[in-house]
Fold:
Amino acid sequence: MLSQATRLKLQSIIRLIASGKEVSLRDRIYVHKFADTNQTVASWLNKARYSQKNKNNDHIDHLLNELSICSPDPDSTYKPDEDDLGEWFSGAPTWLGRS
Structure:
């Protein structure tokens, strides 16, 4: 359970992250410490990182973000419209290939 002061501090840092403003390393470590142990804080952080990365998102992206069903990894580099799935897995170990 987060105290009100802790929650407010976390939310202010997360708002800075979402807006793309500068956040100190100390503040990032502080947020990640709570995100590692608290699912709600982790969700806030994922939403903020997704918002930061997709500033020009449409209504569907906004809805997905608000429902926390956007990409689980906001830093994912796979782009389904541009990348070929076969090439994406080309660096996979040989044991993973078809037999």
In short: Residues 4-89 form one domain. The chain has one domain: 4-89. Helices lie at 4-19, 25-35, 39-53, 59-66, 85-88.
